[in-house]
Batch of 3 targets.
Target 1
Amino acid sequence: MYSILIYLIIQASFMFLFILTGAILQFIKERKRKGNEKIKLGDLTVIIPFRDEESRIKSILNSYENSLKTPAEIIFVNDHSSDNSVDEIKKHLGKLPFQIIQLNKNESGKKTAIQKGVLHSKKSFILTQDADIEFSSNYFSNLEKINQDNLIILPVIFQSKKIINTDVILANALNYSATGFSRPVLASGANLIFKKEHYINYAEIDSHKHLASGDDIFLLNAFLKNNLTVFLCADKKVAVKTSSEKTLKNILRQRARWISKTKHVNDLYAIILAIIQMLISSTYPILIIYGVMELKLLDLILFILIKALIDQVSLGLYFIRLRLIKEFLFLPFYSVIYPFYSLLILINSMLLKQEWKGREIINSN
């Protein structure tokens, strides 16, 4: 029984003092944030790298067709697609200010595609998007209400009925709280704005171009390293939505890809937070097994309820802010399966060769 009490004290301390307090601090930061200039669509270039996205690209193309406002430039960068992605783009966006540029034979990868798009841009600000996302018709109208900054991390929401994707929300919630206390540790290139001049001066793409993944995390750390301000925005009005992988196998491979890019950054702040979170999460099912064998049923139920209450209260602000009500209600169940799920991801990342679009995540050159 003492081990359970100690666990609840440690878990409550971390969840209330760091997660909840950090979320409140970040919420206040967003509300008090001031700036002289808002984002201007006339000075914004959207860069969308793509490779064989014919079956997935229609969502973003429909979003642009239905958008009330559009940016000055939309640049699609073709990374050697072998399907009809280019034809789909031309068919849908004929009336919009878009262009398609091709990577050369000796060029490949998302980082190179973004870099080439940035160099083709004639504007001061860049917005990167993934080719499989979608957004509301008011998305760009709401972007104009945000103050400019060197780097702006915008929300990405998974569209899925699978509870297993709750891990993405938890990672973003942890990132939200981390930003409230200090700075963000995660960013997604699916919805990311940055100043072109700082990208050119500080991104240092050549130092990690051999890693086929991680354009967003490396860019975030390059900006932080050079003391450039970074703003994390959790306003759902400027969120984009992306579809989840369909099968458990592909979900595990996707998470393993994410691990492969973050482990090369060597961010001590992120590592410490990940270790604390993993220890707390992995201990929970062990204590449940212990409780089944050693505790009275009423005591076990009380333990589970207290643990669930701590999670709900400390994570509620972030989940409700993004209106993720269903995922919020399923948190007690997910907290039981999460440690086993994380172990599957870890094993998968160590034993299997990670590929994306037919390429290894870590190239040999």
Note: The first strand starts at residue 44 and ends at 50.
Target 2
Amino acid sequence: MYGYGQGTDSAEFRRERFAMYLSLGVGVLLLALKLGAYWLTYSAAIFSDAAESVIHVVAVSFAVFSLHLSYRPPNSRFHYGYEKIAFFSAGVEGGLISLAAITIFVVAARRFLAGESIENLGPGMALITAASLLTGFLGLYLIRLGKRQHSLVLEANGRHVATDSVTSFGVVAGLVLVKLTGWQPLDPLVAFAVASQILFSGGRMMRRSLEGLMDRVDPEADAAIRRVLPELASELDLRFHELRFRNMGRGVHLEMHLLFPFAMPLGKAHRKATELERRLSAALPFPVLLTTHLESLEDHDELHPGEAIALSVTQPSEDSEQTLTTLNTAAVGHSPSPQGTHQP
């Protein structure tokens, strides 16, 4: 079944684990650089950057735990495995980022009111610039690998690191202006700007986490299935309805009802359903665990009055997310062909 319970001995897990350990190690190094820069300058802006790095180290530690848990196989208590921990992990990271932003606001306000000055700008800026470049490369690596692996844990961490890089460059720009103008209040003002950006990023991550846990419709996954399924159904001369799916973390669980002539042998209907599953798995850009329910076409309206039957997926209205395809949450990655289940 595509990625459910692949286990910690899979190549996918080893790649993701290496990336997360790399992120953790680099995070500790970055924290040391930024604390050194703060010790040299006592800059509120640099403090804001260092505080964000503290959160990064804590968040990555939790993400490593989430990654290990997400690869555990399903069991009698968790029939669909543990993949949804990825959404919870993203929410925890977003909450920690928001907490860091509030801390930065408090410290910057105190510095602004006290009128404290900063020192040793040259060495401090050099350390922060090095940290900015390092976080930029790490963030791009994590985002690219996360998209390729279709791992929300990796992608969320990569976006966090990329945000940290942009923040650090903003701090450097602010310190350059302080050095050129000599206007000391600019330092806490830069810290305010950094905190605002961090708070926005944290809120966005928490929102994405909540949407994933609540199975919110995802437009990209919606479009992918609209593009692929009608063509496959037409080629196999199949009708379907009651199509929906939910995101499980790296893969999606998709369900639909297939309709066959009453006189068609069950074995033949099963083979056609299996062929649809095989082709759909190969055609979609993310792995799918497909469950099909087989029904008779002739007496469908009598047994299920009011339910639409489709050869294609209808487009949603602008005012409603309820469509023939109830598509839920984010698109995720590609993996070996899944095995589907049939319910006659």
Note: The domain at 11-213 is CATH 1.20.1510.10 (Alpha-lytic protease prodomain-like).
Target 3
Amino acid sequence: MPVRRDPQKGKSRTRQLFRIGLEVLILGALTVSVWLGRATVIQSIGIVERAEWIWLLAACAFELLSMMAFARTQRIVLRAAGVRASIPSVAATALVGNAISVSIPLIGPGAGSVFTFGRFRQVAHDPAPATWTLLISGLISNSVWILLIAIGATVSGNALAAFGGVFGGAAVVLTTVVGVLALHRPRARKLIIRGGARVLRSVQRVWGRPAGDPEDVTRATLDELSAFRMRLRDWVQAFGLSAINWLASVGCFVVSVLAVRSSVPWTSVILVYCAGAAASSFNITPGGLGVTEGVLTAGLVASGMKPGAALGSALIFRLVSFWLVTLVGWIIYFGLRRGTALRGRNNESDEHEKDEG
């Protein structure tokens, strides 16, 4: 008599092997990151030993404020979708998502978004609010980022950069308006559903979920996204917190300059920060390692700082905003994984006791 195989067990095993492979990839990326950045870290530690400790503590405080503001922005958007989540839970998700995003070259931002989506989906028990939160919080953050570039360029007196920032901000707003209007146009909706169904079909082949016809699932998700609304107060709070997120990170950069007992180039510091942040977003190396430090140092030197002080400022800023935040994120990640494994073993133990009873 032929033995029947449970297809669910096969899919579960495939997902388990995929997770194991992903964790091996992450650990490999972390190892490479530490190996590539070992000289930078050693040099940073040497500079930190000679720096003003009060400003180092201030840098850590600014970075913590930045991450908490980002987490609260996502929490507000989640709440607008009818999902209640605690601040510690959303903060943990933000820190781990950031750690994954900056640790893995090239695909890091995508992998971080996948993790964040999965966490939000667990809380919401529905993919639509998770998708909504990622889209809207990303839109708000990018809009404030472009506004920050425009402000930095205007303060520095760089007319070309100011024009680029304003033009970029207008493009983001225009794209958003067109996208929202397109959701209510039958022809545009068909194109969106068709494209979404193709992506979802590929996901179903790998993961075996979500179940259902790809077009029907995409259509239902689009209908749910169209139904979500944010009140004016929510928009104001979200944009305000996003501004705090970015400005606190700029504050971390400013006190990193003060930590090496140097004068802050106030007219250009925002623009230099934005250049460094842009360099890190390319993610050719983990977190833009090496590239970002070079861009920040060159920008500070061009603003009138001595090369040694400029390099020290860049290294202290990156030690706090990249290495320290990434380390905290990975500690939380493995803590979450351990908690999930313990809950799984407890559930299996409970089921075993029920079977014996």
Note: Residues 54-345 form one domain.
